[in-house]
From TrEMBL:
Keywords: ATP-binding, Microtubule, Motor protein, Nucleotide-binding. Residues 419-440 have a biased composition (Low complexity). GO terms for molecular function: ATP binding; microtubule binding; microtubule motor activity. The keyword Transcription does not apply. Belongs to the TRAFAC class myosin-kinesin ATPase superfamily. Kinesin family. One of its GO terms (cellular component) is microtubule. The keyword RNA-binding does not apply. Residues 2-473 form the Kinesin motor domain. GO terms for biological process: microtubule-based movement. InterPro entries: Kinesin-like_fam, Kinesin_motor_CS, Kinesin_motor_dom, Kinesin_motor_dom_sf, P-loop_NTPase. ATP binds at G99, H100, S101, G102, S103, G104, K105, S106. This is Kinesin-like protein.
Length: 484
């Protein structure tokens, strides 16, 4: 599984604040991109205890220092741009930002200056490049665009950031479920009709046909992003935010909509078939004097009635399969391989929740912000999510038979993105499909965002240790397979 880890240092918040001593360089005998990093700290004179330095293995692809020469565009060119050919081939690429609150995760992934291209976050930078690529293709045939989904994960629920309830600012909660097909589905609003149809919509995917549309949609979604108190500062993100960009056509959107409609039509028919079966079998048994159910000698099951209901159900199931085949047909008939290509950006919640109790050191004590019971519960869930993510990445890299996706809602959601590039089939979007033939291993990058401030030494070391543990597992897998 191609996997790279990057480190990005943010500038020191205050010019007079002491800094962490840090060095990084390619290790002897290693490939050019295998970089290690070491950090140390000289504690204030009034502290007698020393702070142990820490050094990583050669697990890093690149380290971005906090200089004026390093902009978001610099990071994009090194992290995202090299793997765009995978997207042009219809594959999925994943980018995860991990670090303590205030270390620059959102700045890196989303950005704050939405008019300055040099400061676009990775997601907007990717959107810009995608539209430039699409404009270079022939204008013949169905127009290519970008479908965007934005949602945040809090606890066991996903909240749709592109689907507001009426004119309010309330986010629509979505349910994370594993279907009978073994895939994870994020189910949004459910519409019930008078004729018995039940339409369960997937999380919102907004089609954008220009970059300006995409930028406006991203800004709209960010307005609903949740913030709260953490151990670092009171405006840090306390949810995981996921932003997906997929290359689409109107034909693909229509085909997926047809799947949803055929599924809604199947619901009342399937329910009727189940009801008929239960009715007939309930009539076929009665209770005796002892309360035991025994065959009813005065009633024979009307098998013809059951068969008729099942036959009608089968007709609607065939209609669903035909609609699903229609989605596949859109991919197979499209002249462009990029259709269905995806970029997935995950802005993880603050890493201070991970191994929170061990973060404090004499030189950089953690000041606990007062949290509500709800935020404490959310902190424990974030800790669980981050631990599960590390274990899933390592298990995938090692090729383990059992990968613990079910350990947390975060890993359940990411399962579709991790696997959609390495196996044919769909991702978390209902009715989606991929032209991938299963030969690709996919690609994932993790950007560790850290602060050089001496007061953040423990948090920075914690983030780097997390990335190193993930990288060690990936390296072990690469060595066992003889490739990197």
């Amino acid at each position: 599984m191609p996997f790279d880890i990057f480190v990005r240092w943010r500038p020191v918040p205050g010019s007079a604040e002491a800094e962490i001593t840090r060095t990084h360089s390619p290790l002897p005998g290693e490939e050019a991109h295998a970089t290690g990093i070491s950090i140390s700290l000289t504690p204030p004179e009034h502290l007698s205890k020393t702070v142990r330095p820490w050094k990583s293995g050669a697990t890093l692809r690149h380290v971005f220092e906090a200089t004026e020469a390093v902009s978001n565009r610099t990071v994009f060119d090194a992290v995202v741009a090299p793997v765009l050919p995978r997207v042009w081939a219809g594959e999925t690429t994943n980018f995860l930002a991990y670090g303590h609150s205030g270390s620059g995760k959102s700045h890196t992934m989303i950005g704050y200056d939405f008019q300055n291209e040099e400061q676009f976050g990775l997601c907007l930078g990717a959107g810009r490049e995608v539209f430039q690529y699409l404009s270079s293709l022939s204008k013949d045939g169905d127009q290519l665009g970008v479908g965007i989904s934005m949602y945040e994960l809090r606890g066991n629920t996903a909240f749709d950031l592109l689907n507001r309830t009426g004119q309010s600012q309330d986010k629509v909660p979505c349910h994370i479920r594993e279907g009978a097909d073994g895939k994870t589905h994020i189910r949004g609003e459910t519409d019930t009709f008078a004729d018995g149809r039940v339409r369960v919509r997937p999380i919102t995917q907004s089609p954008c046909w220009t970059f300006d549309e995409l930028r406006t949609t991203v800004l709209s979604g960010l307005e609903l992003r949740t913030t709260g108190t953490s151990t670092i500062h009171d405006q840090s993100s306390r949810t995981h935010a996921v932003l997906e960009l997929e290359i689409i056509t109107r034909a693909l959107l229509n085909a997926r909509e047809a799947v949803i409609e055929r599924q809604s039509e199947l619901v009342p028919v399937a329910k009727r078939a189940t009801d008929v079966y239960l009715e007939e079998n309930m009539k076929a048994f009665i209770q005796d004097a002892n309360g035991k159910y025994v065959p009813n000698p005065e009633y024979s099951i009307d098998q013809e009635r059951i068969d008729k209901a099942e036959a009608r159900k089968a007709e609607f199931e065939i209609a669903v399969r035909r609609a699903e085949d229609g989605v596949d047909a859109v991919f197979s008939s499209c002249r462009y391989d990029c259709l269905g290509g995806k970029l997935v950006f995950v802005d993880l919640a603050g890493s201070e929740y991970y191994h929170d109790k061990s973060m404090s050191t004499p030189a950089s004590p953690v000041v606990r912000a007062k949290q509500t019971p709800q935020e404490q519960r959310e902190g424990r869930q974030i800790n669980t999510d981050l631990l599960a993510l590390k274990e899933v990445i390592r298990a995938r890299a090692l090729g383990q038979a059992r990968i613990p996706y079910r350990s947390s809602p975060l890993t359940m959601v990411l399962r579709g993105h991790f696997e959609s590039s390495s196996s044919s089939g769909s991702n978390t979007n209902e009715g989606s499909s991929s032209r991938n033939n299963g030969n690709s291993e996919g690609y994932t990058a993790m950007i560790l965002t850290v602060s050089p401030a001496a007061t953040q030494f423990a948090a920075t070391m914690n983030t780097l240790k997390y990335g190193n543990l993930v990288g060690v597992g990936v390296q072990a897998a690469a060595e066992s397979t003889g490739k990197r």
